[in-house]
Amino acid sequence: MPTTKIHGIIGYTVTPFGPNGEGLDLDALGHSIDRMIDAGVHAIAPLGSTGEGAYLSDAEWDQVAEFSIRHVAKRVPTIVSVSDLTTAKAIRRARFAEARGADVVMVLPTSYWKLSEAEILTHYQAIGASIGVPIMLYNNPATSGTDMSVELILKIFHSVENVTLVKESTGDIQRMHKLHLLGEGQVPFYNGCNPLALEAFAAGASGWCTAAANLIPQLNLDLYQALLDNDLQRGRELFYRQLPLLDFILKGGLPATVKAGLELAGLNAGEPRRPVFALDQGARQQLQRLLHTLA
After folding, report:
1. φ, ψ of residue 224 in degrees (nearest 5)
2. Contact (Cβ atoms closer than 8 angstroms) between residue 233 and residue 241
3. Which of 25, 50, 208, 273 could in theory staple to 12 by disulfide, Cβ–Cβ 3.0 to 4.6 A?
4. Mean pLDDT of the 63-87 span
5. pLDDT number for residue 20
6. What is the C-alpha separation between 115 and 186, in angstroms, rounded?
7. What pLDDT is stored for residue 3 in this prediction?
8. What 3-state DSSP class applies to 15?
9. Would strands 189-191 and 104-107 be described as parallel, antiparallel, or unpaired?
10. What's the gap between Cα 127 and its chain centre?
11. For residue 5, is pLDDT > 90?
12. What is the reported pLDDT for 219?
């Protein structure tokens, strides 16, 4: 099984739309990818929650996946979210991403009906058997409606050969400690909750999956480097400096806040696709103040 070493700051891309949320603006997507790679992020992850992957047609999803992989061009690893409601559709997306050169695919078990542990395991087994690239298992009950216990995550990790990475986004730091302890330090896990970045790295996280890398990549990278250097005092200072913005991004909704922040930085990525609203004027002004303090 081929392995891909993923570490550090993983930047989650937006999906820029044209006027009224119609059509794709791939040129803006390319610029947003370049901004993060030029800043030094360690990986790029399109089509996740920030990228509004759930709101795209199959044709749009294919365009964004293919363009993103081609544009990244192996400068850093590409992690493509292939989650879908059915196993068959997730397999189709996973195979598409692999064929275009994705380094890793990320799978969130989304479903209208509540899934049993056996159904979740079988879902991952079927996707794993269909592709040869590594899979990042993603646990985020806030968006999927499915909360996988640490025990289930480890069962999938040990049962599906190419599930080799875990993204934990419940916002419960104890999950990460438990993953580290029960996994005997052998399970690479990644923080997906912005306000937990400091604690997650202290718990042994291999990286931080963050939409904030669109707006403050250098601060994200500096925090990671400080903790690599075992400089906890500097790490704390850097974390608490950016925490108000990290909280704002989470509470304001990733696509809306990041797209507004990119526009304030001079890159128009359009509005989120309905039913999600763009930030109102008051929130935009608050975001502008937060970004100004971090400039």
Report:
1. -60, -45
2. no
3. 50
4. 98
5. 77
6. 27
7. 53
8. coil
9. unpaired
10. 19
11. no
12. 98
Structure tokens of 232? 């906890």
**CB neighbours of residue 12 within 10 Å:** 26
Sign of dihedral through CA atoms 147, 149, 150, 153?
negative
- The first and second tokens of residue 13, run together, are 């891309």
> pLDDT band for position 99 (50/70/90)?
very high
Q: Do 82 and 99 contact (CB within 8 A), yes or no? A: no
Mark out the alpha helices in the chain (DSSP H runs).
Answer: 26-39, 58-72, 87-100, 117-130, 141-144, 150-159, 173-182, 197-202, 217-228, 232-252, 254-264, 281-294
**Alpha-carbon dihedral sign for residues 63, 268, 18, 278:** positive
Amino acid at 116: S
Tokens of 266: 């001079």
First to last CA, the chain: 43
For the chain, the residue count is 295
What is d(CA 13, CA 47) in angstroms, rounded to the nearest whole number?
Answer: 7
- From 13, 12, 15, select the one nearest 269 (Cα to Cα): 15
CB atoms within 10 A of CB 62: 16
pLDDT tens for residues 177-198? 999 999 999 999 999 999 999 9
Name the token pair of 275: 């039913």
pLDDT for the residue 22: 83
Tokens 């029960």 -> residue: 182
Mean pLDDT for the chain overall: 96
Per-residue pLDDT of 229-258, as tens digits, reads 999 999 999 999 999 999 999 999 999 999
Please choose, from the candidates 105, 111, 65, 55, the residue with its C-alpha nearest in 3D space to the C-alpha of residue 87: 111
